[in-house]
Amino acid sequence: MNRSEWKIHHAEGDHRIIVTKALPGTRWLEILTGAGCRVDVCTSETALKEGEILQAVGRRCVGAIGQLTETWGEALFDALSQAGGRVYSNYAVGINNLDLESATKRAIAAGNTPGVLTETTAELTVALTFAAARRIVEGDRFMREGRFEGWLPSLFLGELLWRKTVGIIGAGRIGSAYARMMAEGHKMDVIYFNRSPKPDLEQTVRDYGAYLASQGEAPVTCRRAGTLEELLKQSDVVSLHVVLDESTRHMIGREQLELMKENAILVNAGRGPLVDETALVSHCREHPGFKAALDVFEDEPDLKPGLSDLFNLVMVPHIGSATRWTREGMAVLAALNVTGMIRRMPAWNRPDISPFLGVSPPKAAPSIVNAEPLGIPLYGE
């Protein structure tokens, strides 16, 4: 990595922090420099390789803010530890790119940025759903190519989702937010597959259903599927929101795709490897009425052969959290994770992280995923 591709802020700071990509906004940087940190920021737009990050860590580095495009394993956490590192924060809510055991073994607190991207990512999932259902991308291309010669009864017929069934695989924060948007906005019944029941989601949909009934309309429903197969067979839309691990890798493959309805829609704004994209290419070719929409990819940033040729597939470049408010908020959370651990504050680790986005954040680190094994106290306890 060329030195010219790193910019140093507050060079006289006592605590050296590396940030592997320039982050949106300015508050995150003000937080770090205000805590006495020297901040080395990589200005290159290409993903850093392990060797480049090792070089950046060097001999003195108290903490790091990294990206989901980087694999932080034993080598990097060992180097960070040897350099005096105490904290790493992922600029993401997902942590599948981290070896938490390696970080914990070296007493390195590992943070992430949950909460702030929930609605943003759910909104993008809604947008992808309807872009696929109403063939928006196909229609846009058709217009730009000058092929529109007038209205036709059968031109770009899509799918009506009103009063249909949406299947949520993984009803965490984002999955539940998406479910509520589809139920409340489009009166879709919700079926979800999750390791544990989600009573809050069920109650929210039940309350909305009661309101509809009070207005003389049919209520919407929400229930937990007993099996993944049950959800796939019954859903008109299937949206993926589970964490990526070995148990969920390729959870949607040829067998699962064959269980879905001929005109179903598969949406993945979670993690690319949840879907066997080779199987998806074959299925989309063999079932032209089937539609898919992807924000994430199995070999990101590379595409599996055939994906870009599919007319019944919508693709966007991993922009689920890409609103200015969200990305700036993520940067603030990551910076506060770092400064919180430097100042030996407790971990917040609560679902509501909104207090950290105000002018006077709590004296805590917003989200430290290995707080318990490291013995880091929780805020207020």
Question: Nutshell version of this structure?
Answer:
The protein is an alpha/beta fold and 381 residues long.
Report on the architecture of this protein.
The structure is a single chain. The chain is 35% helix and 14% strand. By secondary structure, the chain is α/β, with parallel strands linked by helices. It has two domains: 3-116 and 322-374, NAD(P)-binding Rossmann-like Domain (Rossmann fold, 3-Layer(aba) Sandwich); 118-315, 3-Layer(aba) Sandwich (Rossmann fold), CATH 3.40.50. The strands form two sheets. Strands 9-8-7-10-11-12-13 form a seven-stranded parallel sheet, with helices on both faces. Strands 1-3-2-4-5-6 form a six-stranded mixed sheet. Strand 7, helix 7 and strand 8 (189-193) form a beta-alpha-beta unit. Helix 2 runs parallel beside helix 3 (74-82). The radius of gyration is 23 Å and the shape is globular.
Any guess at the CATH architecture of the largest domain? 3-Layer(aba) Sandwich
Helix content: 25-40%
Q: Separation of termini?
A: 44 Å
The gross shape turns out to be: globular
* Structure annotation, total helices: 13
Which helices and strands, and how do they pair?
Layout: E1 6-9, E2 15-19, H1 27-34, E3 37-42, H2 50-57, E4 63-66, H3 74-82, E5 87-90, H4 100-105, E6 109-111, H5 118-133, H6 136-144, E7 165-169, H7 173-186, E8 189-193, H8 199-214, E9 222-224, H9 228-234, E10 237-240, H10 254-259, E11 265-268, H11 277-286, E12 291-294, E13 313-315, H12 324-342, H13 371-374
Parallel strand pairs: 2-3, 2-4, 4-5, 5-6, 7-8, 7-10, 8-9, 10-11, 11-12, 12-13
Antiparallel strand pairs: 1-3
